């Protein structure tokens, strides 16, 4: 296809198309009147800004990165990851395979939940079985449902059985938080409002839509953190978060805009395991069930233009799949859909879809610059012959619309950024490319067959071929989504803050140091 027919999107044109202005998008200093009241802070305290109030603090039900910033400082898993993403022992000291489908984990002795309840094999088995229980309606279910059950086989030994031999069981165990069985039963439907973990912090007060206050857990089994008190402040606006950092009202937050970096007191930047895409529905009744329309939507997006105009050129375009080279299962033979609006128009004509009404759902205030990006994407889809009804929702309603546990009939197109904390394609494929995932609006029997086979294939080379094939089908032949970017994570912080982000994106406040 000739380049002559293509329209390149400059930053100025992008902002004009979306109705935004450069000052509104990036200049925090213009919003001094919007800053929230200052919070009193002590020498060993930390204030972190988050974009929205979590819908719940139940770590086994909710699978979202903003609530996780809070909950992973209260709760802990059996296995975890170090700064570089390597799996390490945590509440379990060791794991031993005793049969193709059975593993025994030896647990750390002397650990207690903050209410004094003992952490033991009963608690570990309870937590694993709870995340699998349909009544929990866990958003993690697609990731962990290779696990059949868990049971205590001693006070400090828990047996985990899988439905088939599972090559990535250890990765799955890194995302299952341990919860106290008696306490969980006692609090009932308050389990998402109250907390009781084994971690370094405990919930002090939750002021809905304003702040979440944590205090150090005095009975924590590990080293005492330097930070003794911690406040997560809910600040929805990008500019207000940045201004709050520069006026010392907060100490740290994720989501500095590229244009703000020179004005930030200090920042950390690095490629993240965070991938943006437009999830597309091929289910019966969807207006975009025809794969040609979904292919056209991929050709319609000028990813380079978007990334340069809205993300400062940072990050990478996704190579035609919801994965990156450092992930197990990544298919190196897939390439990005080129920006080719003429090809998009041809496919839409072939499908008889000119003027087709397509509803696109996206968040406003969930991700940095999300509304502006959604407006630009919608304009590009409109330009190739589709009629886009863009609906921007507050973060909690946006999640509700995208989760089939809460909204059985998913939207035709739903914008999301996916974080793969297991570093394995199984999590991504089971969450989005298979209807078994609570966040999926896509079904393809060939993808499911390859995914199912990969879940019990212990030969790494054979398993890689199965995962590669699943991506090939679900990314090119019958696209599950419009694949956009791997994002660069930008943390802004005060100069006194010493903080290095973990490879899996987990925020470990206990590892943060304040100098001065």
Describe what this molecule looks like in 3D.
The chain is α+β, with helices and mostly antiparallel strands. Helix content is 28%, strand content 22%. Strands 1, 8, 9, 10, 11, 12, 13, 14, 15, 16 and 17 form an eleven-stranded mixed sheet that branches. The protein is globular, with a radius of gyration of 23 Å. The N terminus is likely disordered.
Show the helix and strand layout.
Layout: H1 11-18, H2 22-26, E1 45-50, H3 65-71, E2 79-81, E3 87-89, E4 92-99, E5 102-107, H4 121-132, H5 141-144, E6 147-152, E7 157-162, H6 169-173, H7 181-187, E8 201-207, E9 211-216, E10 229-234, H8 238-246, E11 252-254, E12 266-280, H9 291-299, H10 303-310, E13 316-317, H11 341-350, E14 357-363, H12 370-383, E15 387-393, H13 395-402, E16 413-419, H14 425-433, H15 445-454, H16 460-477, E17 481-493, E18 497-498, E19 513-514
Parallel strand pairs: 1-10, 1-11, 14-15, 14-16
Antiparallel strand pairs: 2-3, 4-5, 5-7, 6-7, 8-9, 9-10, 11-17, 12-16, 12-17, 13-17, 18-19
Q: What is the first-to-last residue Cα distance?
A: 59 Å
User: How confident is the prediction overall: mean pLDDT?
Assistant: 91
Uncertain segments of ≥5 residues (pLDDT<50)? 1-13, 15-40
Characterize the overall form.
Answer: globular
Q: Work out the radius of gyration.
A: 23 Å
Largest sheet: 11 strands, mixed
- Tell me what portion of residues adopts beta-strand conformation: 15-25%
How many DSSP-defined strands? Answer: 19
> Treating each run of at least 4 consecutive H or I residues as one helix, how many helices?
16
